[in-house]
Design brief:
Blueprint lengths: L1 E9 L2 E9 L4 H13 L4 E8 L2 E12 L4 E2 L12 H14 L26 H5 L20 H10 L16 H14 L3 H13 L3 E2 L24 H8 L4 H7 L4 H4 L3 H4 L9 E2 L1 H12 L3 E2 L2 E2 L3 H8 L3 E3 L9 E3 L27 E4 L5 E5 L4 E7 L10 H13 L3 E2 L5 E2 L1
Antiparallel strand pairs: 1-2, 2-4, 3-4, 3-14, 4-5, 6-7, 8-9, 10-11, 12-13, 13-14, 15-16
């Protein structure tokens, strides 16, 4: 391993980048530094594991652009929908232990939800975005996301957008509460407690849903991207149709998007989009699943669960929520190449067909690639446009695959 420290003169001032990397992954280090030089990176981290061992762990820049507080090894940004990956991992862990049947009706675990039009809902539908509840139609009360009993009652009573299992639409915020309540009914733990006890603690990972008071100083300040033209169809629909899925998904959140960096939000468990993690945490939680479900002698899931995590479960040429082509396994986003789509609708994740993970709003991602026995994590505070990888994150993933001897094929997937 090579220890690394470099001071870089960027357009925003002098910053440092540090950490370590295996010499085979020197291109990842070079791209990470280049992100600060020329691609607008402010503060970020990248981490890669191979065969369960960390081969890249780099971080740098500033955690707060105004105060110039340094981005240090423990700095954690909000990773938005990258949180969904940890949520899905928790449910697959229960399934592998025989405590949860993903094909069973939700009513077996959560009777109050699985009634009426929701009776046909299975747990798998919560995972693969086909449950028919991508957003809540009725007005969500202020701060409802910070009151678990209230938000789950709202979901029990919520009207569906389509019959369960008949269509696909990204459950941007509802998925976390739906899956989290299933886990609570099975284990008696909240999903944040389960994540700490089963993964963050045993594996030594900085990945949390709901921070404790002593962790608040580790939080990076997020920077939203400037709106550019042309806008994505998703955002055009938010403006044009206040009663549509897109507007309800983006705006009907009880004020959370305006308060997501306040203590009450950071301490709450929002398992679709409120997790905080380092890049090391994002790569680390996927490491067992890049290695067939086992790491350092501990088995987390069996091969059946790995197949369900990695195989496409549903795909649509027009996801009803995001309004772009999307492919999902049971709980994770699959490789998608939308670069040839109309301007504004080109969100993509170029990875191998065996890989699975979850990108977050603005560009963070965690993923596992069982074929390469590789896991990858990237997080940052300067958000890019869209809900998939931005050019900074994709450059790091590209250089990781390139370092492993992979090539980008005509389908926009990395392959050997």
């Amino acid at each position: 391993m090579k220890d690394y420290y470099q001071e870089l003169e960027t357009p925003d001032g002098l910053i440092s980048v540090q950490g370590y990397y295996d010499s085979r992954f020197e291109r990842v280090m070079e791209e990470f530094s280049q992100n600060f030089y020329s691609r607008g990176e402010v503060g970020a981290g990248v981490s890669v594991t191979l065969d369960g061992e960390t081969v890249v762990d780099l971080w740098g820049g500033v955690a707060d652009a105004e105060s110039r507080k340094l981005w240090v090894k423990e700095t954690m940004p909000v990773v938005w929908s990258s949180t969904k990956g940890a949520t899905s991992i928790c449910l697959h862990t229960l399934a592998s232990r025989g405590l949860l049947d993903l094909d069973a009706p939700v009513s077996e675990y959560w009777p109050e939800y699985g009634v009426g039009s929701k009776a046909a809902t299975t747990v798998k539908m919560f995972l693969n975005h086909t449950a028919g509840l991508p957003a809540i139609k009725e007005p969500v009360p202020a701060d409802a996301y910070y009151d678990w009993a209230l938000i789950t009652k709202i979901l029990e009573d919520a009207e569906l957008w389509w019959e369960p299992g008949t269509d696909q639409g990204y459950h941007g915020l509802t998925k976390g509460f739906l899956c989290g309540e299933i886990l609570r009914r099975v284990t008696g733990q909240t999903i944040g407690e389960f994540l700490r006890s089963e993964f963050s603690g045993p594996l030594g990972l900085e990945f949390y849903m709901g921070l404790e008071e002593h962790q608040m100083d580790t939080v990076a300040t997020m920077i939203f991207p400037e709106q550019t033209e042309p806008a994505a169809d998703f955002f055009l629909s938010v403006e044009a149709n206040p009663e549509g899925i897109q507007a309800k998904l983006f705006n009907n959140d009880g004020g959370h998007m305006e308060r997501f960096q306040t203590p009450i939000a950071l301490k709450s468990e929002i398992p679709a989009a409120g997790g905080l993690a380092t890049a090391r945490g994002l790569a680390g939680i996927y490491a067992p699943f890049a290695c067939g479900g086992e790491l350092n002698g501990t088995r987390f899931v069996d091969q059946d669960q790995i197949s369900r995590m990695s195989n496409v479960s549903t795909a649509s040429e027009l996801d009803k929520a995001l309004l772009v082509p999307m492919r999902f396994s049971e709980g994770f986003t699959k490789a998608m190449d939308n670069r040839s789509g109309k301007p504004g609708n080109q969100d993509s994740i170029l990875m191998s067909e065996e890989a699975f993970g979850c990108p977050g709003f603005g560009g963070s991602i965690g993923l596992a690639d069982p074929g390469a026995k590789m896991s990858f994590g990237y997080c940052m505070n300067a958000m890019g446009e869209g809900t998939a990888l931005n050019v900074r994150g994709q450059s790091l993933l590209d250089s990781t695959y390139g370092s492993l001897g992979y090539h980008l094929n005509q389908s926009g997937q990395w392959s050997t």
